[in-house]
Amino acid sequence: MRVEEQEKRGEFTAKIVDWYDGAKRELPWRETRDPYAIWVSEMMLQQTQVATATPYWRRWMERFPTVRALAEAPLEDVLKQWQGLGYYARARNLHRAARVIQEKHEGLFPERFEDVLALPGVGRYTAGAICSIALGQDVPIVDANVIRVLCRVWGVRGDPKTSETQKRLWELAEALVPSGRADRFNQGMMELGALVCKPEPRCPVCPVQDLCAAYRSGDPTALPEFAPRPAFTSQTDVSAIVRRSGDGSLLLTQRPPDGLWGGLWEFPRVTLRPDETAAKGAERAACEVAGLRVRAGEQVGAVKHGVTTRKITLLGIGCAPADDVAEPQAVGCAAWKWVAEGDLAAYPLSSPQVRLVAQIATARSQPSLFQTEAG
Fold first, then answer.
1. Are 215 and 243 members of one domain?
2. Phi and psi (nearest 5°) for 49?
3. Interaxial angle between packed helices 35-45 and 50-63, expressed in degrees from 0 to 180 and rounded to the nearest 10
């Protein structure tokens, strides 16, 4: 390595650590070295803003203060605690990993990097964050914030999502980790990317502006060189809001344990086929998901939401069982229940379904909306 390069790396590292010491935000998970608590925070902060994650983290730590408490909790309780954060695979992986720790590590959070990395849902970044911040190990991290800092300061070209560029970024991050100060350096890198080196950077207040290749180029936003995002597609989904005659309870079905919204409860739901009406889609949803024939009535709700690159319009269609004697079956779901409308909040539901529930409550003030064509 050239002397100039070595000097730049030393200066960069020192500036990041000094800046972090004076500029870091007061966050609850920074008040502990408990690897479990830091692990939970890192999982929550994937795909979630700090302001949103903070109250969830506090409630989670009150409800599941230890690995053992999490491991012994029913998955449904875990998903309910996570409700509203989205990307529920994170919650399922926390639960699975807690049980692995309970079984293989006697309930004690592992300290070896390899053991942390082997936990369900833990990748190289999360393992590095836990091991450096909680356990004081000299290991690197590379997340979206760090990618921006590294690409801009060091002029790293190429799409960071490709394996070749990823390899270069990890090698650079590893070379920069200062011995004995990895916790402050890694958090400083993340903090700089979150507060200063944002997609639209605040270069005038950046502590490493004088070292930044992208700043010197005159166009700091040119890096990182991410490939264009894929175009959004649109689809319409339908949920059958099946209300049982007599007690007025609603049919809830539980999604299979894996995949999108795995383990959550919802009203039977399908994606509309081309040229299929919403009413026919609702009848198909009840049949394919819960093995129940229904008569579809009017629309009682509509929710717009997004999943990765899909823009989804979710319609709620009021339905009544075609046969008052027939009971649902777990045909395309993990389980089903008739639930009183007032008890729906006790079940872990995806955000779109929560919004649909609220609209159904409003629709109840207009009884005609739950009358079927035959009723």
1. no
2. -70, 150
3. 140
Domain extent at residue 267: 233-370
Rounded mean pLDDT of the chain? 95
Q: How confident is the model at residue 373 (pLDDT cuts 50, 70, 90)?
A: very low
In a domain, 227, yes or no: no
Tokens for 220? 């700091």
- Any idea what the CATH number is for the domain that residue 63 is in? 1.10.340.30
Q: How many domains does the chain have?
A: 2
Catalytic residue among 42, 191, 266, 283: 42
Name, in order, each residue with C-beta under 8 angstroms of 230's C-beta and a sequence gap of 6 or more: 309
Nearest-angstrom CA–CA distance, 173 and 148: 12
Smallest CA-to-CA distance from 152 within 48, 12, 26, 336 is with: 12
Q: CB 257: neighbour CB atoms within 10 A? A: 10
Residue 148 lies in a domain: yes
| Domain assignment present for 228 | no
Placement of tokens 């050239």 in the chain: 2
Token digits of residue 236: 């319409």
Task: Give catalytic status of residue 42 as yes or no.
Answer: yes
Tell me the pLDDT tens digit for each residue of 76-111: 999 999 999 999 999 999 999 999 999 999 999 999
Helix (H) or strand (E) holding 202: none
Q: What is the pLDDT of residues 19-69, one digit of tens each?
A: 999 999 999 999 999 999 999 999 999 989 999 999 999 999 999 999 999
Residue 5 pLDDT class (50, 70, 90 cuts): confident
Residues 155 and 108 in one domain: yes
Report the candidate in 253, 254, 232, 230 with the shortest Cα–Cα distance to residue 241.
253
**Cβ neighbours for 324, distance < 8 A, ≥ 6 positions apart:** 245, 246
